[in-house]
Structures are given as structure tokens and as C-alpha cells.
User: What shape does this take?
Amino acid sequence: MADDAPTALDLPMVDPLPPATQKYFDICTEKLGMVPNVLRAYAFDIDKLNTFTAMYNDLMLGDSKLSKLEREMIAVVVSSVNRCFYCLTAHGAAVRELSGDPKLGELMVMNYRVADLDPKTRAMLDFAVKLTEAPERILEDDRQALRDAGFDDRDIWDIASVAGFFNMTNRVAAASDMRPNDAYHAQSR
Amino acid sequence: MADDAPTALDLPMVDPLPPATQKYFDICTEKLGMVPNVLRAYAFDIDKLNTFTAMYNDLMLGDSKLSKLEREMIAVVVSSVNRCFYCLTAHGAAVRELSGDPKLGELMVMNYRVADLDPKTRAMLDFAVKLTEAPERILEDDRQALRDAGFDDRDIWDIASVAGFFNMTNRVAAASDMRPNDAYHAQSR
Amino acid sequence: MADDAPTALDLPMVDPLPPATQKYFDICTEKLGMVPNVLRAYAFDIDKLNTFTAMYNDLMLGDSKLSKLEREMIAVVVSSVNRCFYCLTAHGAAVRELSGDPKLGELMVMNYRVADLDPKTRAMLDFAVKLTEAPERILEDDRQALRDAGFDDRDIWDIASVAGFFNMTNRVAAASDMRPNDAYHAQSR
Amino acid sequence: MADDAPTALDLPMVDPLPPATQKYFDICTEKLGMVPNVLRAYAFDIDKLNTFTAMYNDLMLGDSKLSKLEREMIAVVVSSVNRCFYCLTAHGAAVRELSGDPKLGELMVMNYRVADLDPKTRAMLDFAVKLTEAPERILEDDRQALRDAGFDDRDIWDIASVAGFFNMTNRVAAASDMRPNDAYHAQSR
Amino acid sequence: MADDAPTALDLPMVDPLPPATQKYFDICTEKLGMVPNVLRAYAFDIDKLNTFTAMYNDLMLGDSKLSKLEREMIAVVVSSVNRCFYCLTAHGAAVRELSGDPKLGELMVMNYRVADLDPKTRAMLDFAVKLTEAPERILEDDRQALRDAGFDDRDIWDIASVAGFFNMTNRVAAASDMRPNDAYHAQSR
Amino acid sequence: MADDAPTALDLPMVDPLPPATQKYFDICTEKLGMVPNVLRAYAFDIDKLNTFTAMYNDLMLGDSKLSKLEREMIAVVVSSVNRCFYCLTAHGAAVRELSGDPKLGELMVMNYRVADLDPKTRAMLDFAVKLTEAPERILEDDRQALRDAGFDDRDIWDIASVAGFFNMTNRVAAASDMRPNDAYHAQSR
Assistant: This one.
């Protein structure tokens, strides 16, 4: 692929970008120092970009009793099951940054099971991983385990939605060979 | 759960629904004879409902060189891997209806591999299933197999996006024990 | 294969059929409206047909404390693990008919785990599925779980025998690409 | 279980045995030096014993272009996948005896893939093992591979039937904790 | 490979062997009636042979509260998971010899789960097998299960080291198609 | 475990260490800035430490046509299959350092399949991963694929030995909950 292309698919960005998109990308550059490649990948079709970012922002940044770190931890453990290079890189960096604990980011990437986690966080990640590996085996006992750990039904919905979302994006990234921006690798080490 | 609840989670619909949502649900009732339970499930939070329907409508009903039947076939084979009762029921009915071939719907649910498919359709479904079962093993050879079968890079994106989307919704449905409307079972038999 | 052939193997029926076989097939046509293709498939060798039907009739129709519906449910969940198009179609129809509950048939085909089952039936199907997926891991605890659910040792034998039988026929059907009669698809919907 | 019981299930043999069964068991003792425990296990119900032995004798001893050694090799590689102690012991002994090659018996039990086999035998065992491990993935290419190796469609049926049969008996043995007669272990070493 | 070669790799033994190695091999011949092929395989490089035998002797013959039979049982169940023809043959013979119970050796090769074992031995083998099949899932609960069964932390180290060692040698044997000496097959039957 | 303990097992280092061991540890501190925890873990028994370091040094630092980077890449991809936190951390750092390419280290940890590798390196890693995941399926074709990629039989032995070694150490680390020194995480980023 072209050195700078965000994926292996020949799907160039709309050129020029519509003003609202350009403005969004400028804000990314200003705040993050880059436009994440996932946004560049979707920008061949502005409607698709917008539906993707609307869902992403609702799930990862919107109102929820799950903290942003908790949502990023779910993102990484799901991506670890699916071995998604893009999402492990981008969201592994987010875990390192939000937690201030580089080792925690590595543990989520490598094997969350051996991390030293409080029981509530472990229950959350166990559910996200089982939902990823064997969704057909999720039953009422699994929901009850989350309730017993202190989550309510809205939290369960949010855990499931974030885990589900990364099961989607992991596969879009895998199918298109999506490449993370190089800048992530050294962040918050 | 309550006999009429769309999931096992205690997340009642916003009441009353905002006028735009109520109108959308009325249209569903008029056209489909029901409000699909997935919409009722998301209606505890209208923003979530809207981001979900925007993505669903873009992927399943929006502009694409994939026919609606092809997209529904992807939906069902992905849901078959994940054994999602909700999606197999609702989208199995869609395959039966769009194809006019009840047996085709059953084959997608039970084992698409033994269906009598043209090579292009088989390549599409093989990719969707591998992407579901082993996303970490999707490589350039897999993309090239789709191109060799007659798909272009935009088609590959669309195949991946539909397959990815159902990997998400299968898991939201599994996590919440989402129940399909009974009406689907007898449709287009 | 020929449009009418029951399998992909070139193994034509004995022609003419011996009188006893012809009579048996005539009874099938009269009672079921068809000769099930599995019988046509075996009819290239009357001894094989007879040993197959003797075992089938003993297990599925013979004396047992398991009801015919219970035996058909085992048949379908085993065939669901093995994704056998023939057996899911023919025995899924049987579950719908014997139970008068089309949704129950669909649940057995798609994912029996999310069906609303009494604990005894669930224990029976859990055993049949574990025996199918991981026979090397069936131990005394698994047998005791059946006894605790209300089954006696003869029932355990019968559950195992039906589950075992469909592990055989699923594979004969898969190996020969056995095709179910079209009539099953619309039955008892 | 009782020291002498053939399984962990409390299903004593009919007592006295009907004369025809007693005669059959006497012949076993005379020819084999024992009554194989599988026959003793089924003898709680003479009809079940008879349907089992009729199918066994047809498949393993009846007319087929597969040699008895080939059928026993299929029996053992299937039982190796399923890790069935009873069948590996009894049919491993049969491979040793029929081949006069104790090492061949061990290879079939341990890992048939590393045995030094002619291509036709390897194709046969590869088919039997794939049919055991992933019956849903057996397609026309797999049947054609057998034809290319020199088998005809009747042979394919016979390979599938023997492989299917041991997928049944492996599970009946596992479910009941069936124990092989001790005499097998030292035979033909 | 040459009839007498210990592996499929063209790596001839150092010739002549250094005196210390020759003496070691002479002792093997005297005590065992053969030079085990694993030693002949490593003898293309005397340093590699020496590091291998040092570790082997420490683990399998050195000081430990695990008996030699217990270590050999671990060796065989690990090799059974990995289906290693070399190690199953050589160490299966060792279990038969050390236990004086040929059936025990067969059970370890075929399916240790159905053997009649005391709870401590079963806990040891369950740990070794889980460590082989799913090392990423070994957690404190697994270590505690060993402690509850009567093992101390040094024993846990020894169990893990033997299980780990055979996970290594199974793979060296598989990669090189290492062949056990024929003499093992008939030993201690 | 104690904050400073290298594993979850209560196996304190020999105290004082023998002079040769102390010297070795001092050299580690001088050259690496730390004593790797794996050495501290083994130091409860100096013989075990010595046999481990002898094998490690022979394989990872000794004479071989495989470069040190190649051996470390094998170490990481094997550890990625087994999700070993210790080895991924320590040897991931080694890949980053030896290659001067932090992204390469991340790719080996996360999913080597999507790395941009020359065909020879890919063949080497594909062999190591298959040997790890399914040693029973390694056959002559797999060895020939390495030869076709440019490796000779001695190289195959070395690839197998390194892959085998990490299949051992991954399991010793998992069984003991071995913890990598914190210093690795930030190295060569």
C-alpha cells in the first residue's frame, strides 16, 4: 500500500473534505497531534464516517457510569482476543494515558488475566472476553455475575455495547489491514 | 423477563417516545406489522437508538454494489457462527423474503457451506465467516480472493462492514438476551 | 448431483426394491407424504438400509422413558453442533410438530442455550452437547448431574445412544452431501 | 462400579440370556477368549444388543472393498480424536493383530499423521479425521480427494459409515464409562 | 529418512563421539539395551546434547518430592495433548515399567481423565494438562488447587517444570520427526 | 506475593548465593541494569538455575546461523500464542532493541501475521507458530517449506529448539506467575 495510506484498500478520502469534516480533522490534529487513521480510512464516504464517529463518540465519550478508562480497558481486551494491531495500538495507548500506568496497558494487550485487578473490573473484563470468544454461551448467570459485582442493567448494556463495538471495528481493521499512526507506539510509556 | 420485554435487562423505553421516534415506530408497524424488538431494546436512550439506526440503515439499506440480499446473507452467516437467536431469526426471514427461496434462508442459518452458491457469493461468505472466526488471520490473500471473484475494494469494505456490524449486534443481543418478535418465525416459509 | 438424487454419491437404489422395502416406502409416502431421503440414500444396499432403520426405530420410536419430543430435541441440538443440514431440517420439523411450538424448533436449531427450558430438559441437552463436543471430558460428575436432574441410568443410556446415533448420521450425511426432502422446510411453521 | 461391570451405569445383563445371545457369547469366548465388554454393556436389552451387533457386523465384517485392516484403522483414528479409552484399546489391538505390525497400532492411537502410509491410506484417514473433527466442512473437494486417491463412491460411503459408527460408539462408551477387557492390552505386542 | 536415522533432519552425529559421550552411550546400551534416539538426535552437537541431558536428568532423575512415576505420568499426559509419537512411546513405556501397571500407561496415553486416580494425582495431572492447553488461563486458583491437594510451592515448581519440559521436547520431536526406538513398544506389556 | 518476589511461589533465593552465581548476577546488573526476574526465580536451586542458563545461553546466544534478532522474534511470537506476560515483556523489549524498530516489537507481540516481513522470516515464524499451536500437524511439507525459504536442516533444528524452549518457559512463567522487571516496559520505545 502507499506509505501513507491508512488501509490496504484503494479508497481515497473525499477531496476536498467537506468543511465540517475538515474542521473535525483539524481539531484532531490540534488535540492529538494527528488524525487517527481510522477516521482517514472512513473518509472515502462522509456518511459512513459520520455514522461511525457518532457511535464511537456515544459509546466511548458519552454519558455512562463506566469510566473512560474502563471503556478503554474493554476495548483493549476485546482487541487482544481478536489480535487487532490497529486497536491494540491506539487503545493500548489510551489505557496507558488514562491510567498513568504503562504496565496496565501492556497487561491488557498481553493477558489481562494476570493483571492485579479489583473484582469488579475483573468481572467486567471477564464478561467482555467471554462475550467476544463465545457469545452463544452468555446466559443469565453471566449477567448476574456482573450485577453481583456491582453493575446495574444499564452498565451491562454499556459493557456489551463497547465490547460489541470493538468486535466490529477489529474486523473492519483486519479486513482492510488498517494501520495505526506511528505516533501511538511511544505514547505514555 | 416480562413477557413483552425485548431483552432480559431492565431498561424500559423512554415514555413517551419523542415524536420522531414514535413516527418511526409507527412506520415500522405499518410496513412490517411490528416494531422490531431491537429498536424497542435501544429505545431506553434515544441517542443510542439513533446512532444504531443510522449505521444500520447506511449499511443494510444504503448505497452499495452489494444487493440487499447479499447483505442479508452476510448477516445470517455471521450470526450462524455466533449462534445469535435474534439475528438468525430476523435476518433469516429477510433472506427467505428477498430471495423468495425459503431453503436458502435455512441453509444460511444451518450451514452455508453446503448451499449451491455461485463462486462470487461463496467467496463473499467465506470471507465474512473467516473474518468472524479468525480476524487475526485475514491477510492480503483473502482480499485478493475477493478481487479475483469480481469484487472491488469498495465492495470489500462493504462486506467487512456488514460482517463487522453483525459481530457487534450478535454480541449486544447475546449479552442482553434479546428476543426476536414471534412474527418472524412463520414469514416467507 | 442429479436433481432428484438424495446424495452426491453415485449409489442408485436397488431396482426394483424388494417387496418388503417397497411396502415400507409406500407406508412412508402414505403417512409422511414422502420417502425421507435418508432411506433412499441407504437403499443402494438393503442390508444397510435394514440395519439403519432397525437402530433408528429402536432409538427414536422404541420403548424409552424419554418422550419422542425429548429424543428429537437431542437429535437437533447434536445436529446443531455438527451443523448437519439434513438432520437439522428433518428433525427440526419433528420438534416443531411434536411440540406444537415452531419457536422451540428454531431455538434447538439456532442455540438451545437461550431457550426457556425446565432444568431437567436443560440437563439432558447440556449432556448431549458436551458428549458431542468433548466426549473425552465426560466423567462421573456429568452422569451424576443427570441423575440429580431426575434421570436414571437407563435414561442416561438412552440419552447417550440418541446423541451418539446423530453423531453418526450427521457424519454420514455430511460425507455424502445428503439432501433433505424439500417438504420439511414449510412443515409445522 | 462393580469390579466386573462393563460400564459405570447400573444396567445388569438380562438373566438368563436368551439362548441365541448365550450362544453368541459362547462363540466370542471360544474365538476371542472373552466376551467383549461392549456386548455385555448392551445385553441389558436384547433388542438393542441385536441392532448394535447387526450394524457392527455389517460395517466391520461385511462386504466392502475396504479391507478389515482399513476399517480398523479408521476406527482407531476416529477414536483417537475422541480419546475413547474403550475403542482405542479394543481396536488398537485389532490393528496390531491384522497388520502384524504393533508399531502401526501405536501410531494410529497416538498420531496417525506421522505414520509412514501410502497416499491412498492417508487420504482415507485424513477424510475420516476431518469428518470427525469438522463434519460441517466436508465438501465436494473432500469427496473428490478420495476419488483421486483411488476410491469409488461406494468406498466413500463405507469410509463415512465406519467413521460415523465410531463417532457413535465413542460417545456411548464415554457416556457410560465403558471399560475394555484387560486382555486387549497385551495382545499382539 | 535413512532407516536408522533418529529424525528426518540431515544432522549426523559427531564422529567419532567424544570419549565422555561415547561412555554415556555405552552405559545406555548396557542399562537400557539401546541408546535412546533423542540422544542420538542431539549428538550432532555435543554442547546441545549436554545441556539437554543436564536438564533432563535434573528434572526427571534429580531431587524432588515428586516420585519418578509421577514425573513420567506428567510427561505422558502432556505428550498426549500434543500427540507426540516419540514421547508417548518412550515415556508410556516408563509409566508401564515404574508402575508395574500396563493399563495405567495406556490410560495416560489415551485419556488420563478416565483413569481411576487418587485426588492428589488427578490434581497434578489436571494442572499439567491445563498448563499445556491454556497456559494463559493458569491463575492463583489453579496453584491453590494444587496446594489444597497436598503439594507445596516447590512441588508446584517441579510439576510446572516437567510439564514445561515436555512441551519443549514434544515440539522438538514433532519438528524433526523424531522416531522412538522400536524396542519401547513391547516393553512392560 | 511480596512486592519484590519474582513469582507467586514461596521459593526464596539461596542466601547467600554461591560466588559464581553472585558474580553472574553482578554482571547482569552491570550490563542490563537489573537481574532478570527469571534468574531470581530459578535461584532457589542453583543446579536448576545453571541448567536453565546453560540451555538459554546455548540457544539464544550460542552459535547458529539464525541471528539473535530472529531468535528473539521466534521467542515473542511463541509467547504471543501462549500470552505469556513475562516473555512478551522481556523479549518484546529485545526485539525492539535488536531491530531498532519499536513497531516491529509491537507487531510480534500483537499479531506477527500483519507485519511486513520478507518471505524467509515469515516462513520461520509461521513454522514456529504452527509448532506451538498444533505440533501434531507438523509434517514433512512444513520442513520442506522452510528449506524452500532458504533454511537448512541445522536451521530447522535451531528454529524448533528456540520455539520449543519458549513453549517451556512460557509455561513455567504462567505456572509460577512470573513477573517481568518493570524496567523492560519503557526500553527502546
In short: The mean pLDDT of chain E is 97. The two ends of chain E are 29 Å apart (CA to CA).
